[in-house]
Amino acid sequence: LTMPRRKDELPARIEPCLPTLVPSAPKGPQWVHEIKWDGYRLAVHINGQDVRAITRNGFDWTDRFPTIIEAAGKLRVKSAILDGEACVLNAQGISDFGLMQAAIARGRKPSDKVVLYAFDLLFLDGQDLRSQTLASRRMCLVEVLERTAHPGLVLSEEIEGSGEAVFRHACQLGLEGIVSKRKDLPYSSGRTTAWLKTKCVLRDDFVVIGYEPGVGGAVNKLRVARRDEDGVLHYAGGVGSGLSERLSKGLKARLDKIALAKPVIKGLREKGIIWTEPKVVVEVEYRGVTMADQRLRHPAFKGVREDK
Question: What percent of the chain is modeled with pLDDT above 90?
Fold first, then answer.
């Protein structure tokens, strides 16, 4: 007799697998490579007619992604969890975090240009797939997506071959970088070396700890810090490039509500700075850090991370 497969319960949340940043793409046939999308990491949970979009930190943002929810709801599955990145492409066909932010801003009509680039399938029709290899999970994902075509749900293509060549081409095309994944390993929540990211330019999240006031009620420069794995804040300098007048005024109003008399990092002696509680996270693009004091080199503001 063939015993029926045990059905697993659909998890309420799965902590996402996070790639480790490396200076060069890995080599070897066990690696596959994908474009590094620049948007919001989402897990799309399907349980019958109930479809939800859960952010990297566990926030339910279902109402912000109607196009993705509609697409996922049309998949011919009973239950599933898709892992992917919600993105908006610019005129050059490159994912743009600024456009993504504008597309889902509160108070605006949700945009139909938001697309989920799905790169993994963690659960399908009562079966937890995380213990299976990436290659096996991807086969299931391709089959599920091919059952129902919808513009709001797209497969993030894998590229076989030389990681170095894939990375070089990605940079030539103006992309942020690539993510390389071991196709022979199971899904691992949290930071892992089974997934590696290689960036053409550096881009990370920083905590705002103050700002330098500008003219007309705007922000001239943000003061930011990097939070290490132990939760300790380390000063990273100022970020002014990329701040529009409209955006900086909104940021000032938000930061003024959490102003402090002294900086949260001891020993900072800068004058004319409005210090704040470390509650606002921003994404910053930069070209490296100074050796002496670990300040950001050529930083540019890319957006507020509302999901963090």
Answer: 67
**What domain range is 22 assigned to?**
15-37+157-200
Q: What is the largest CA-CA distance in the chain?
A: 78
- Enumerate the β-bridge partners of residue 53: 44
**Whether residue 161 is found in the same domain as residue 23:** yes
* Start-end of H helices in the chain: 66-73, 97-103, 134-147, 163-172, 245-256
DSSP label of 135: H
CA gap 88, 111 in Å, rounded = 9
What are the tens digits of pLDDT across the range 101-134? 888 877 677 677 899 999 999 999 999 999 999 9
Does residue 209 share a domain with residue 107?
Answer: no
| 197 catalytically annotated | no
- What ranges make up the beta strands (E) of the chain? 17-21, 31-35, 40-47, 50-55, 79-87, 115-124, 127-128, 153-155, 177-182, 190-199, 202-213, 219-227, 233-239, 259-260, 274-286, 300-304
Strand segments, DSSP code E, in 156-201 are 177-182, 190-199
Residue type, 262: K
Place of tokens 């993510």: 179
Per-residue pLDDT of 233-282, as tens digits, reads 999 999 988 888 888 888 999 999 999 999 999 989 888 999 999 999 99
Which amino acid, 165? A
Q: Are 178 and 31 members of one domain?
A: yes
Confirm whether pTM is higher than 0.85. Answer: no
Indicate which residue of 7, 27, 36, 279 is catalytic: 36
Residue 27 has φ and ψ, to the nearest 5°, of -110, 155
